[in-house]
Amino acid sequence: MADLFSPLSFPRGPAMSNRFMLAPLTNLQSHTDGTLSDDEFRWLTMRAQGGFGLTMTCAAHVQAVGQGFPGQLGVFGDQHLPGLTRLASAIKAAGSVSSLQMHHAGIRSPKEIVGQPVGASEDAETGSRGLSLGETEQLVEDFIAAAVRAEQAGFEGVEIHGAHGYIIAQYLSAETNRREDRYGGSPENRARIVHEIIDGVRARCGADFQLGLRLSPERFGLKLAEILDLSRALLAGGKLDFLDLSLWDVFKTPIEEEFQSRPLIDWFMDLPRGQTRVGVAGKVTSPAIAAEMLSKGADFVLIGRAAILHHDFPKLSRNPDFTPIPNPVTREHLRAEGLGPAFVEYMATWKGFVAEPEAVTA
Fold first, then answer.
1. Residue burial 116-127, b: 16+ Cβ < 10 Å; e: rest
2. pTM tops 0.70
3. Domain spans of the chain, in order of start
4. Is the separation of the CB atoms in 108 and 62 below 8 Å?
5. What is the pLDDT of residues 289-347, one digit of tens each?
6. Ramachandran region, residue 248 (left: φ > 0; alpha: ψ -120 to 50; beta: rest)
7. Which of 220, 248, 251, 269 could disulfide-link to 297, CB 3.0 to 4.6 Å?
């Protein structure tokens, strides 16, 4: 358990004071123009004050057309700088490393929010339009510009959201990427967008600016063998400071039969990583599970649901027997943990997470 509270250094940027990273969590609390609200500020700064070694924002969209949900934080314009600057400063003041997650929902952007969704290729189910070559190049540029803007706001690093079927994952998948230009076809071409964003961030941000990447190893049309190859190349390349693996469940076995001889996490723990750190997310709900993931080879863990339930999960985890309050929880509990009204109601849509109000009897 002591390893959970040992510092973790990175090739670039400040070290985490412990092995707990706040997962980037959708919370629907920002203003409609993507500027930071007081509710989102409170939610995130409470987690920084609660002891997370690194506090990451929710997915922040790098293009207006890339918005994925209502009340999403934006990083696509200078109008977002005042709020982002306030947030980065407060996270750092609490002793936590500040990181912003960069995102574009692609074909998962709701029509009622963005009008015409776009993606790697045309998608009949969502009515999305495929991006042209020039628009793909602009997408790369806008991810890089978002990183520059985050650094300008005072964030110590960014994470590229390449998981969960959003636009980067749409380029990585042969199912959603049917392009015939240099961004489509072979696995190398489909991964080109990832390498170009990484290279651009490295070229235009400071030498000590921290850079991570979140990947899904499977689902969303992704092939585990291809994600393993991409991870192997990125870890060997040394341009990333950390790789964030969203496993859905850290104990699961792979979906694909040929890989079911061992748990999903084990396929990644064996990859040579040099100085690049590797973290895992997916139902890490107790200090015991977190410690087990470190024993398997992870450098850190990302905490999602448990961080919603307890803003100070890392501090509580100094008790090795600590387990989060069981669901369903009351709205009052969530409000006390720093969730604003929009976030509380969003969590009420998660089956079994929030207790239904008791009926009032006459």
1. ebbbbbebeebe
2. yes
3. 2-324
4. no
5. 999 999 999 999 999 999 999 999 999 999 999 999 999 999 999 999 999 999 999 99
6. left
7. 269
